[in-house]
Amino acid sequence: MKENSIPKATVKRLPLYYRYLRILNSAGKTKVSSTELSEAIQVDSATIRRDFSYFGELGKRGYGYDVEDLMNFFGKILNDDQLTNVALVGVGNLGSALLKFKFHQSNSIRVSCAFDVKEDIVGRIVDGIPVYPLDSMKEQIKLQQIEIAILTIPAEQGQAVVDQLVEAGIKGILNFTSARLSAPDNIIIQSVDLTNELQTLIYFLHHGNDEK
């Protein structure tokens, strides 16, 4: 299997599959069909079978999928057996909410440190996470060997912070700012624009039926 041959849309669905398989496994279910998965996670069964086909023979036609085997397979692909420490840059309203979230859907992801410039929060422990001054970011990221960062800062500060993160050794950035950020080709930036997502949702609410 060549990882770069897996469509991005498929990769985005893997955590959804994995999460539901964990639920089934906890409930003691041993077998599941693509139809059952489809009904539970609202992804059509043809898409599920196509997604799974990228990873070889995961099940047998008419027999279904072994829940535990499939769960372990996707867990390994998603590195859920390894703890991944993440840095959060910006402890404003959204950043604070992410600290409280604590990524309950995965036991393998942990925000281990946060960075900000506000004097009233730097040096404090917020929801169990130490907040360091921004000027110590490169040092702490290298010290803690962190490779992933989340950006929840004003857009105009985004590129300067990304440049520092790259220098510190960060390999992946989840960008919640509205800025279009650039980085070397070996750095992955995944942007989440909440305004765009809401506007897209509003469009489909009002115009979705027009395309049918």
Query: Which strand order does the major sheet show?
Result: 5-6-4-3-7-8-9
Q: Mind describing the biggest β-sheet?
A: 7 strands, mixed
- Mean pLDDT equals 86
Gap between N and C termini: 37 Å
Order of helices and strands: HEHHEHEHEEEHEHEEH
Q: Which percent band covers the strand fraction?
A: 15-25%
Radius of gyration, whole Å: 20 Å
Q: Tell me how many strands there are.
A: 9
Q: How many H/I helices?
A: 8
Low-confidence stretches: none
Question: What's the overall geometry?
Answer: globular
Instruction: Please state the structural category.
Output: alpha/beta
Binned, the helix content reads 40-55%
Subunit structure: Homodimer.
Organism: Enterococcus alishanensis
Domain CoA-binding: 79-180
Subcellular location: Cytoplasm
Describe the structure.
The protein is of the alpha/beta class and 212 residues long. It is 42% helix and 17% strand. The protein has a seven-stranded mixed sheet, with helices on both faces. Strands 1-2 form a two-stranded antiparallel ribbon. The longest helix is centred in the first third of the chain and has 19 residues. The two termini are 37 Å apart. 21% of the residues are buried. The model has no long low-confidence stretch (mean pLDDT 86). Pfam families: CoA_binding, Put_DNA-bind_N.
